[in-house]
Each structure stands twice: as C-alpha cells, then as structure tokens.
Write a structure and sequence with these properties.
The protein is of the alpha/beta class and 136 residues long. 40% of the residues lie in helices and 19% in strands.
Length: 136
C-alpha cells in the first residue's frame, strides 16, 4: 500500500478543486484526467477523495464516478477576493491568515479538512488555503 506521510493513503483525505469551467478546453480535459485517476484510486480503496466544485455542470460529470463531492457557494465572490489578495502581494502566511478569516470560498475549502489539495488549473486559491497543495 502506498503511503502519504506516516498514514496509509486511504486514511488521508485528498481534495480536488475544480475551479475550471467544463467549457475550458484543454484545462477541462486535464482536470477530467485527474478526476478519472482519483476515482480509480478511490474505487480500489487506495485513497479518500473529495471533489469541490463551483460550476453546476460538473455535477453530471461527477455523478457516474461516484465520488463524494461538494458544490461550493460564493465562488464568484471568493475568486474575486482571492485575486484581490494576490494583487496586494501579501506574503503567503498573511494571505492564508486573511483569506481563511474573510474569504467564504477559502473558509469552505478549509472546513472540509483535506490533508492535501489538488488544483489542476491555474488558480489564485492555491496559496491561500491551509495545508499542502499541489498545483499545476
């Protein structure tokens, strides 16, 4: 069994943030590939996965995969606030502190307590959520 830290992977929760819209061409296809791979790992009992998304069109894509998911609220406002934080050139520790307190989207992502977040598309939230992040 693979390990992530000192616990087996199925004891860790990996979050996938789908901030990209399903009409976004190559970024959408890349997100779909990661989503399919995570679904396979979860089906084999190798990983606990949670998919967080904002665009309702993801629901019909996620349903056949049987992955636990969370449709996020306040995506537009939270994304705007994340971009604003980025434009302030705040140090990462300060951005995490302020975003965790004031950005409703970051608060939602932090609340599900994932051990690792995957961001398959360029996103301002990658350095504003708590915990380890893999961004591409």
């Amino acid at each position: 069994m693979s390990t992530f830290g000192t616990q087996s992977l199925n004891q860790r929760r990996v979050g996938l943030y789908l901030g990209v819209q399903p009409k976004a061409g190559g970024m959408f296809q890349y997100a779909q590939c990661i989503l399919t791979s995570l679904a396979h790992l979860r089906q084999n009992g190798e990983l606990d996965v949670l998919v967080a998304y904002g665009d309702q069109r993801w629901a019909s894509i996620l349903e056949p995969l049987g992955l636990p998911s969370l449709q996020l609220r306040h995506v537009k406002r939270g994304s705007f606030m994340a971009r604003a934080m980025m434009s302030l050139f705040a140090p990462p520790w300060l951005a995490r502190l302020l975003s965790g307190a004031f950005n409703p989207l970051v608060r939602q992502l932090n609340a599900v307590e994932c051990d690792l977040w995957l961001f398959p598309a360029q996103d301002e939230l990658t350095w504003q959520v708590h915990g380890p992040v893999v961004a591409s």
